[in-house]
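Researcher: Here's the sequence for the chain we discussed earlier.
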Amino acid sequence: MVRVLGIKITDRIKEAGLVQKALSEHAAVVSTRLGFHELNDERCSREGFMVVHLAGHIDDCEELAAKLKGIDGLFVREMAFSHGLSDAPMECEGTTIIGIMVPRRDDLGPAVQALLTTYGCVISTRLGVNEVYFGEPAGLIILELAGDRSQFASLERSLREIEEIAIGRICFPV
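Model: Thanks. This is the structure I predict for it:
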């Protein structure tokens, strides 16, 4: 099974140290992590997000997830890819993160890439990770979406037309 945690940190100044401590204590199961927050010339948001790709013994992954869920000021969501297509809901308010598991990435990757290019104007952040899915090389793509929500649904519908890929979603409240 492939697991991804999405974390919304409501106040980076107060909670970031606690999150870092938990991730460090469980570093053996953290395969990849990506953190981001809004930053421009006028603003540095105290709200932040993390995507954590887990790999390792399931009990250790569960322990990390439980520890993070126990930290006040965090919203922790999970995406798991275990068997075929995910039934992620199409409607989502707030920050939206989509995971795409691409088996046979040499065969299916070009079609997925073409769609992501087509919908590039709603993809704010993208992370690609090499993965093993059912014993075969695969690609895990994590997307943070922003902008026109009708395009989010259109992107998902188009992705679901590609047989064999699995799609998951993490939604955070506004």
